């Protein structure tokens, strides 16, 4: 693997999913409200070295709809289940540098090694622009690429143009085959998830908790209209919008590729590529050191791991305090039962749980409000050498 992303693929392990459960009390998948607890069985993967609250990097799989669209565009729809490999060009003596593990199936190459969902970076778009054979298309794209701010509209929070739309708008004339595409297409990146389980409790199972990332986007018509207003009319825009029909006017919604895979498609028995990486979430050596944990939503992942570790240590840490925030106790209070059990276990695995339910009253209440209310206890713990953990800032003190 010549590039850094490529190296990840060569070091990752294929781990089977053994648990995949919903964590929210109220689920609305269409509205983006779903959070999954996923466990991987890593017993057969000794190379995967991990500790409590480290990070697990997961390689997303593109949706079938995108894989098939690109396979069709590249003329390999009937070869998705055929093998491919990289061979040395006859003009060179150098060994082949594989950008990803091969031989593999065409479906695998398009499914996990190519980033088919994101807007290409400007550098990647510039390489793709060279493929356009229609001079008008190429000129429009090259002009846009020189205007950083306007390109940012395409790729930014409200735009997020998918690679497929990018091809439809700018590269309908491109003559591109699978080999060229695999070299030019940005590589898929792994996503990090804080491990929510304890290696002391069970080193053969790694758990993560994942929330679906879903955001509203501008309609394609509005997006292209805005770019036209900035002096970027696209030759193919009107015919593409016409082809999309009413869809062109609808506000679009963005779904993150990895969280969508994990929250909406992953099932038990499926195998995913993963890699563990050390984090700075480490418990104090001395069991008498006070521990204060601050977390909201899936930001509680490292603390679920800690609480499992406290349980495995048989409750020897007696000064543990967890400030947890979510919107409503009967909607998105993830790991509720487990935390309540940890409080009443004999001896308790968790000494105190302080909750902040932001939307249960007229005035929003967050973890920081509860922290202020408990300032005296927190101050005393700090004087006693407390470790304070905040997932946004990892170990604070
Ligand atoms: C160290 C670390 C630990 C993490 N731990 C967890 C965890 O325990 N559980 C968990 O659910 N996620 C966790 N994340 C976030 C996770 O890595 C992914 O970023 C997230 O799942 C979105 O990936 P995606 O492929 O679905 O979205 P992508 O396709 O990568 O798109 C993400 C885009 O959506 C935007 N976005 C909007 N809201 C969010 C959001 N809430 N999170 C991320 N991006 C957002 C970003 O601007 C980003 O450009 C962690 C991230 C890091 C760096």
UniProtKB/TrEMBL annotation:
GO MF term set: flavin adenine dinucleotide binding; FMN binding; NADPH-hemoprotein reductase activity
The organism of origin for this protein: Polarella glacialis
Gene3D superfamilies from the UniProt entry: NADPH-cytochrome p450 Reductase, Chain A, domain 3, Nucleotide-binding domain of ferredoxin-NADP reductase (FNR) module, Translation factors
Enzyme Commission no: 1.6.2.4
Record-linked Pfam families: FAD_binding_1 (PF00667), NAD_binding_1 (PF00175)
Cofactor: FAD
UniProt superkingdom: Eukaryota
SUPFAM superfamilies: Ferredoxin reductase-like, C-terminal NADP-linked domain, Riboflavin synthase domain-like
Keyword Flavoprotein among UniProt keywords: yes
Keywords tagged on the record: FAD, Flavoprotein, Oxidoreductase
Name this protein carries in UniProt: NADPH--hemoprotein reductase
């Amino acid at each position: 693997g010549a590039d850094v992303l490529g190296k990840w693929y060569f070091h990752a392990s294929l781990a089977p999913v053994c648990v995949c459960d919903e964590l929210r009390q109220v689920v609305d998948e269409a509205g983006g409200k779903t959070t999954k607890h996923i466990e991987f069985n890593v017993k057969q993967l000794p190379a995967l070295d991990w500790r409590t609250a480290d990070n697990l990097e997961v390689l997303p799989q593109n949706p079938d709809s995108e894989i098939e669209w690109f396979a069709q565009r590249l003329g390999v729809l009937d070869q998705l289940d055929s093998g491919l490999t990289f061979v040395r060009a006859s003009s060179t003596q150098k060994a082949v540098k594989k950008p990803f593990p091969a031989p593999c199936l065409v479906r695998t190459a398009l499914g996990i090694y190519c980033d088919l969902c994101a807007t290409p970076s400007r550098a990647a778009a510039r390489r793709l622009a060279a493929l356009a054979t229609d001079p008008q298309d190429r000129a429009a794209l090259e002009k846009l690429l020189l205007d950083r701010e306007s390109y940012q509209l395409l790729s930014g929070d409200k735009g997020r143009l998918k690679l497929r739309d990018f091809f439809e708008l700018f590269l309908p004339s491109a003559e591109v085959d699978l080999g060229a595409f695999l070299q030019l297409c940005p590589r898929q990146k792994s996503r990090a998830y804080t491990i929510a389980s304890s290696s002391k409790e069970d080193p053969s199972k790694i758990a993560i908790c994942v929330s679906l990332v879903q955001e509203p986007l501008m309609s394609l018509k509005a997006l292209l209209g805005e770019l036209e207003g900035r002096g970027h009319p696209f030759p193919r825009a009107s015919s593409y919008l016409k082809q999309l029909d009413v869809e062109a006017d609808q506000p679009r919604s963005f779904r993150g590729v990895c969280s969508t895979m994990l929250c909406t498609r992953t099932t038990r028995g499926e195998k995913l590529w993963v890699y563990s990486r050390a984090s700075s979430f480490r418990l104090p050596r001395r069991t008498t050191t006070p521990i204060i944990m601050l977390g909201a939503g899936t930001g509680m992942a490292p603390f679920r791991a800690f609480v499992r570790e406290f349980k495995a240590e048989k409750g020897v840490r007696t000064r543990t305090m967890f400030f947890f925030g979510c919107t409503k106790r009967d909607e998105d209070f993830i790991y509720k039962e487990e935390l309540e059990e940890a409080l009443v276990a004999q001896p308790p695995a968790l000494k105190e749980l302080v909750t902040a339910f932001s939307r249960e009253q007229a005035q929003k209440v967050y973890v920081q409000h509860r922290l202020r209310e408990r300032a005296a206890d927190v101050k005393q713990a700090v004087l006693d050498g407390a470790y304070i953990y905040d997932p946004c800032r990892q170990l604070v003190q």
